[in-house]
Specification:
It comes from Gimibacter soli. The protein is built from 18 helices and no strands. It has a single domain (about 15-440), classed as Amino acid/polyamine transporter I, CATH 1.20.1740.10. By secondary structure, it is mostly helical. Helix 1 (about 15-25) packs across helix 12 (about 275-300) and helix 11 runs antiparallel to helix 12.
């Protein structure tokens, strides 16, 4: 796709920005003030630490997107710097992380829908609603990249509005608020900051989605980098300000026990309708995330299919220019996984699959940082020893360390099963590699 016109590349800056922000803001953010409440003001400090860490990662992706503005994002970076096998592992793991996340987010979406339709608390109606949500968005992704981009932009703006409302209204009511304690947990301040940073870091994961559909983005070598930086700043401002507003409005002990902190805050500010506003915002947030994950799940396998790392069948585009086959497979697998959640005896398997995929969300961060180190090493070997190159090397190392911090916080079980999931994909890589070898041999006969 060499054409750089809006028709050929329907994602401009704002659609790219919406992918960054919309992929990160899901249902989890609506619980964040309650999770941070036991840590008081130090809990808010966690946003500053995680913000620095995720900005290092975002800048790493921004530099790599400028260096290699190719379809597949982390896959292209890993393959370009570390070889075919590394590229395959990233594509395989990243794809699995997307469709498993779709099922988890769909379950959360139905949970918020049940606020308005109590019948959705029953397994069969809940499953039907979740499947309807997944397949409606799958149909949109099958039909039009342009439609996907516009829908993502609209849902991102709409999901930000309830959070902004809390910030503004909370600021106006701050005169009557009481500052939270500095460290109500009584724990070691450094340990508390580290724990808070770990919790908040997870709310920022997902911003890398914008790097995957590079062929759909206008002027990707510049637009992706700008969208990443502006998007992450947007996320940090929204998250910090909204968490602070809720913590000012609701006493810490009450907030720590809340199951719906934003709804509780909105109810205090504007009455019973406040909970409805937040529930609608959460539904929109989850729907936007599903749309983003379906887009990325389709796009991430196209490049390795083109380049022979997986069967070419996966890379075939429909007449609408979308990877229809992979989107259908992703939606089907997400649907089956969601059905497991509502089937007695299979809930544990659903939770296990979600755990299994957690690490595969983070592995691209590690490989992207290491790939940039490789490219910088090559630049130095070619004689470029400028201050810019040395600075970028330092930033890449810091991004690598920030990612290790997130991975360590995910737990030993997550790390173990995440690597097992990557290993399972190795036979597919071997078979695809053999197909390429046999094809090359036949071509030379």
């Amino acid at each position: 796709m060499s054409d750089d016109t809006p028709a050929a590349r329907p994602f401009g800056f704002w659609q790219a920005w919406a992918l960054v922000v919309g992929s990160a803001i899901g249902s989890g953010v609506f619980m964040m003030p309650a999770l941070l409440a036991p840590y008081g003001l130090l809990g808010l400090g966690g946003w500053l630490i995680s913000g620095i860490g995720i900005m290092l990662v975002a800048l790493n992706f921004a530099r790599m997107s400028a260096r290699l503005p190719k379809l597949g994002g982390p896959y292209a970076y890993a393959r370009g710097g570390l070889g075919d096998f590394a590229g395959f592992l990233i594509a395989w793991g990243f794809w699995i992380s997307q469709w498993t996340a779709i099922s988890a987010v769909a379950v959360a979406a139905v949970g918020y829908m049940a606020f308005f339709l109590p019948v959705l608390k029953e397994p069969l109606p809940a499953l039907a609603a979740g499947l309807a949500c997944i397949w409606a968005l799958a149909f949109l992704n099958l039909r039009s990249l342009d439609g996907v981009g516009k829908f993502q932009l609209v849902t991102t703006v709409l999901k930000v509005l309830p959070l902004a409302l809390i910030v503004v209204a909370g600021g106006m009511a701050a005169g009557d608020a009481t500052l939270p304690e500095m460290n109500p947990s009584g724990g070691n301040p450094i340990s508390v900051l580290a724990t808070s940073a770990m919790l908040t870091m997870w709310a920022l994961v997902g911003m890398e989605a914008v790097t995957v559909p590079a062929e759909a983005i206008q002027n990707p070598e510049k637009t992706i980098a700008r969208a990443l930086v502006v998007g992450v700043i947007t996320l940090l401002v929204i998250y910090f300000a909204s968490s602070a507003a809720v913590m000012l409005l609701i006493p810490g002990d009450v907030l720590a026990a809340s199951t719906a902190p934003f709804a509780d805050a909105a109810t205090l500010l504007i009455g019973p309708v406040g909970a409805s506003v937040v529930a609608i915002g959460a539904i929109i947030a989850t729907v936007g995330v599903i749309n983003s994950f379906l887009l990325v799940s389709g796009q991430v396998l196209v490049a390795p299919a083109r380049e022979g790392l997986i069967p070419a069948w996966f890379g075939k585009l429909s007449r609408h220019g979308t990877p229809a086959r992979v989107i259908l497979i992703s939606a089907t697998l997400a649907s089956l996984l969601m059905a497991m959640n509502y089937t007695k005896g299979l809930v544990a398997a659903f939770e296990f699959m979600i755990l299994l995929s957690t690490l595969t969300t983070l592995i691209p961060y590690v490989f992207t940082a290491v790939a940039e180190m490789w490219f910088i090493k090559r630049d130095i070997q070619k004689g470029d020893r400028s201050t810019r190159v040395k600075r970028n090397l330092l930033l890449a190392v810091l991004a690598f360390l920030a990612t290790l911090f997130i991975i360590v916080g995910s737990g030993a079980e997550t790390v173990f099963w995440g690597f097992m999931l990557l290993i399972v994909g190795m036979p597919i890589y071997v078979l695809a590699r053999e197909d390429r070898t046999e094809g090359a041999a036949r071509a030379t006969d």
